[in-house]
Specification:
The protein is α+β, with helices and mostly antiparallel strands. Helix content is 36%, strand content 45%. A five-stranded antiparallel beta sheet has the order 3-2-1-4-5. The longest helix is centred in the N-terminal third of the chain and has 38 residues. This is DUF2500 domain-containing protein.
Length: 121
């Protein structure tokens, strides 16, 4: 009986450290990305919206199967050099953009700041 309890304790500790390590890694990774973005220059370049996409994830909660969904919005811009940059946007910013829009994209590292559409004559 002593051996079984010791095995359970060891497995519990391993699982605990794996979960704690994962959370710690996610926190450190998020802070590191935030810091890199803050250290990057804020750039404004001429760009074209080449694609938009949404990623919807659904979650079921509890025994009564309450559903909850979250939507993430992404826009890909093409700059003059031909390089493409994809940014995560808020829903209201995403909704204001259309494919083939041309204008001034402002970003800092991997952080989207704004897009000002050129006026059409």
């Amino acid at each position: 009986m002593f051996v079984e309890n010791n095995s359970f304790d060891m497995i519990f500790m391993i699982v605990f450290f794996i979960i704690a390590g994962t959370f710690l890694f996610m926190i450190v990774n998020g802070i590191s990305k935030w810091h890199r973005n803050n250290q990057s220059p804020r750039l404004t370049v001429k760009a074209k919206v080449v694609s938009k996409r949404m990623d919807v994830s659904s979650h079921l909660h509890g025994d009564n199967m309450m559903a909850h969904s979250t939507t993430f919005y992404y826009v890909t811009f093409e700059v003059k050099s031909g390089n493409r940059l994809e940014f995560a946007l808020k829903g209201n910013d995403y909704g204001m953009l259309a494919e083939n829009d041309v204008g001034e994209l402002t970003f800092q590292g991997t952080r989207y700041i704004s897009f000002v559409r050129e006026k059409m004559d």
